[in-house]
Amino acid sequence: MKVSTIKNKILVLLVFMATFIAGYSDDIKVGMECGYAPFNWFQNDSKNGAVKVDGGYCGGYDVEIAKVIAKKLNKNLVVVKTKWDALLGPALTSGKVDLV
C-alpha cells in the first residue's frame, strides 16, 4: 500500500472522529502546549501560518494538521494553549477543547 494512501485513510479517520467530537459548533478547539518544536511551538507573530493563541501565536506541524482537519469539517480553528499535564485530563474531559 502506498504511503499517500495510508496518509489519506488516516486523515479521513481523523476528520470522521473530529466530526463527532466537535458537534455542531462553528469552532473546533484543539489543545496544544505550544512548546515542542517542530510539532508545535509558541511565537510572537503570525509568520508561516501560525494561529493566534493567548499571548501570541502557535505554529508547527500539529497546527498545520489541525488547519486541515478544521477546513475539512468547515470549522474555524481555535488553538487553546494548555499545559501538557492538563491536555488529556482536565482540558479534554471538561470540554475546554475538542481535540488534543
Note down, in words, how this protein is organized.
The radius of gyration is 14 Å and the shape is globular. It has one domain. The termini are far apart. The mean pLDDT is about 85. Strands 2-3-5-4 form a four-stranded antiparallel sheet. It has helices at about 5-20, 60-70, 85-95, and strands at about 25-30, 35, 40-45, 50-55, 55-60, 75-80. With about 100 residues, it is an alpha+beta fold.
Percent of residues in helices comes to 40-55%
How are the strands ordered across the major sheet?
2-3-5-4
Number of domains as seen in the coordinates: 1
Helical element count? Answer: 3
Give the strand tally.
Answer: 6
What order do the SSEs take from the amino end to the carboxyl end, as H and E? Answer: HEEEEEHEH
Strand count, sense and closure of the main sheet? Answer: 4 strands, antiparallel
Task: Chart the SSEs and their pairings.
Elements: H1 3-22, E1 27-32, E2 35-36, E3 40-43, E4 51-53, E5 56-59, H2 61-72, E6 76-81, H3 84-94
Parallel strand pairs: 1-6
Antiparallel strand pairs: 2-3, 3-5, 4-5
Question: Concise description?
Answer:
This protein is α+β, with helices and mostly antiparallel strands and about 100 residues long. It has three helices and six strands.
